[in-house]
C-alpha cells in the first residue's frame, strides 16, 4: 500500500529540516536562526512584527531567536524614533558575514537536493506548488464558509 502523500511530504520536510540544521550547526547556527538572520539582512530595519510575519512564526518565538542573535553580536534592535512601541531589527557587520557563510551552506545543500532529483526538480517544484496552492485555497474557502 502506498504511503499517504501528506505523510510523505511531512517526513521529507522533517528530514530536510534536520539536514539543514546539521549543516548550519557546523557554523554555530540552526536553520531557524539562519532564516531570521537572512530575512533581517534582506530587508534592513524591519520591525519585529514585520519580521515575524515574513517568517510565518509567532512573535514570542521570534524574540527568542532575536535574543540569541543579539547576544552573539549578529544583530541589534532599536526603538523606532517615530513610534517607540516599534522595535526595528538591523544586522551587524558580523551578522552579515555570518549570514553569507550560512547562505553559502544553504545554496550548497539546495544543489545537493536538486542533484538527488536528477533533473526532475522542475516537475517536483510544479507539483509542490500545485499542492500548496490547493491547500491554501481549500483552507481559505473553509474559513470563508465558517463566517
Structure description:
The chain has two domains: 5-116, Arc Repressor Mutant, subunit A; 119-147. 71% of the residues lie in helices and 8% in strands. The protein contains six helices and three strands; from the N terminus they run ααβααββαα. α1 packs across α5, α2 (31-42) crosses α4 (59-71) and α2 (31-42) crosses α5 (93-116). The longest helix is centred in the C-terminal third of the chain and has 26 residues, at 121-146. The chain is globular, with a radius of gyration of 18 Å. The model has no long low-confidence stretch (mean pLDDT 92).
Short recap of the structure:
The chain is mainly alpha-helical and 147 residues long. 71% of the residues lie in helices and 8% in strands.
Radius of gyration: 18 Å
The CATH architecture term of the largest domain is: Orthogonal Bundle
Q: Report how far apart the termini are.
A: 39 Å
Number of helices: 6
Quaternary status of these chains? single chain
Q: What's the average pLDDT?
A: 92
Q: Please estimate the helix content.
A: over 70%
Query: How would the global form be characterised?
Result: globular
Low-pLDDT ranges: none
Q: Based on helices, strands and strand pairing, what is the structural class?
A: mainly alpha
What count of domains describes the coordinates?
Answer: 2
CATH class of the largest domain: Mainly Alpha
The CATH fourth-level homologous superfamily of the largest domain: Winged helix-like DNA-binding domain superfamily/Winged helix DNA-binding domain
H and E order: HHEHHEEHH
**Widest sheet: strand ordering:** 1-3-2
Strand content: 5-15%
For the secondary structure, the number of strands is: 3
Major sheet: 3 strands, antiparallel
Q: Write down the CATH topology of the largest domain.
A: Arc Repressor Mutant, subunit A
